[in-house]
Amino acid sequence: MAKSIEEKVEEYYKTKFDKYGIRHFGKTESINSDISNALSKAKSKSGGKGNNYPDIQLLLQDNHSRRIPVMIEAKGEKNKLEKLDKNGHIIQETIWASDSKPNAKNHHKKGDKNYSAITKYATNGALHYGKAILQYSNYDEVLIIGVNGTTLNNNGEVTDPECKAYYVSKKNNFIPKHVEELDTSLVLLKQDNISRLYQILDNLNLTEEEIEAIKANTENELEAKIKAIHQRLYDDKSLKTTLNTNDKLYVFTGLIMAGLATNGVKRLEVSDLSSNNSETLNDGAIVLDHIKVFLTARHATTDKIYLITSLLGNVFKNKTMWQPLNGESLIKRLFAQISQDIIPLLESNLHLDFTGKILNSLSDWVSINNDKANDVVLTPSYVTHFMARLARTNKDSFVWDLAMGSGGFLVSAMDIMIKDAENKIQDKDELEAKITNIKENQLLGVEILGNIYILAVLNMILMGDGSTHMYRDDSHNLYTQLGKKFPATVFLLNPPYSAEGKGFIFVQEALSQMTEGYAAILIQENAGSGNGLPYTKNILKDNTLVASIRMPNDLFSGKASVQTAIYVFKVAEPHDKDNLVTFIDMSEDGYTRQNRKKSSQEVNLRNTDHAKERYAEVEAILLGKKPQTDYYTEKNGKVIKDSISLEGNDWTFGQHQVIDTTPTEDDFKKVVAEYLGWKVEQLLKGENND
């Protein structure tokens, strides 16, 4: 095996930096305390508790005090520059697929974490350092560079230097973006070239396809890790009688709130939990104090703080939770896992229904308290986005949901509103002000169940909002008061189907307070064929039914087996009996669903027949745009345009579907062919008998 020339590679690049006049820092040097602390807090490259020592460190700075740390890792062997997976991503930690041999140098078991890519490859190690800085320091962006070489000349100089550079930032959700310009020369790191380099970095943004892939991967990873933690709770016999499902929800949400970073507030570390065996000074009390501080820092109102801490109080005051066992409380053990596996996934700018994932993952194992009575079934995110777009949501919309669950509709609406603002507002200050206004003033939700309400509050806090207009109340008592001060233009709802009119009472109440806009309602389909009366009839007096979309009967993947439809309304415009309503049969939407408890969404929801294109086509049809596909047309019977009565009882696709029984030419040919085949068969039988 060839000897590594790593030290010579380091020397080669340090000489380059000296030539460029760039101050560089070695393994044991400190750029500043913020970076040093971040490197010390993170796991070591091999997954342990040791410190992190990048081979070379830089700190770039432009004339506007924008500072970007640069982490450089060197190797000196063949093919050690970087290791990528099959999708071209830089590999970090993986899982060992089998046990090590008995005499192996690094003993491991199947399923243990494998850090070999980080320790053995230059770029992979540099990325490890870069992520540590983004996670544990105040920096939002970093450059990571892997350098390598294998050959020296007679003077001991590297003759085949190679380099790979990536820009990693919070705005890009920690996804490395290749900086090709730095691969062949690092001259752009010179102070005179910093402005040009920063322009290049600012243009390295994620594509829509990359963002969607990140969202899907994050959701799958979050779901898998939540289920792993819950399996641990489920398998612990001592806890089965200690924690009901509500308690598990409260443990998850409480520990997440306590562990999230907030400006001006020290992040709760696992080491801060001392596992004291004290009624007053224990890990539960420490967590509750951090929750209060966190909510205050996120500008939650006093009544919300009191409500949330009251809901969470019992579980964290439970002696079984904080009392140490073998020197460590259950709270501390759970927080260690949540801090490592869950919180990093939440601290991103992805607009996901994070807490909906928590709720769905837990309800896979145990029914949520009162879920049958209160119809706690969360709407899939691709459906909430679809409905928000059908309701013409944009940057200026005011969106409300009077039975918000975990806030999934509001999360989707916020995502669409912010993207619309980013596409239409060029001025940076104006855009920031608009996004703040969207989060703080243009979204409103009401939820009656305390255990679900707390998830919605956490969801909106994770979105960067103080949950200003999130209310725990009965919306039937509140809608008039809210309608006077909130100028709603979009109403989104998946109501509890056990409510009056199958849930259409919520729709009537909400639309009565709106003066313009659109509404999209996911509800039992038969609510539109008479079961939603008298509310459906009343709604038509002031609003127009625009569309009726039959959805797949397994839309909720086994959590509820009910035929649903989406009804779309134009608000504050009475329905005319001659208005044409667009009926669409989306019972085949391109997704294949199943409900395996231990499987991820990746397995339980599979795009097997152009699902994304199908949803885009229906959206185009209803928004008056040209569809790019033709899965749903009047010709194939999947789209019907027809009028309805004003009685509110003929809104379903099936009621307007006309099945033509007139025989076609093909039918005639088929019958003749069958007859001739039979006749020939009889003749042959007759010959054989003779």
TrEMBL record:
Residues 414-441 form a coiled coil. It catalyses: a 2'-deoxyadenosine in DNA + S-adenosyl-L-methionine = an N(6)-methyl-2'-deoxyadenosine in DNA + S-adenosyl-L-homocysteine + H(+). The keyword Transferase applies. This is site-specific DNA-methyltransferase (adenine-specific). Residues 374-500, 503-604 form the DNA methylase adenine-specific domain. Its EC number is 2.1.1.72. Keywords: Coiled coil, Endonuclease, Hydrolase, Methyltransferase, Nuclease, Restriction system, S-adenosyl-L-methionine, Transferase. InterPro entries: DNA_Adenine_Mtase, DNA_methylase_A-5, SAM-dependent_MTases_sf. The lineage of its organism: Bacteria, Bacillati, Bacillota, Bacilli, Lactobacillales. It comes from the Bacteria. Gene3D superfamilies: Vaccinia Virus protein VP39. GO terms for biological process: DNA restriction-modification system; methylation. It holds the Pfam family N6_Mtase.
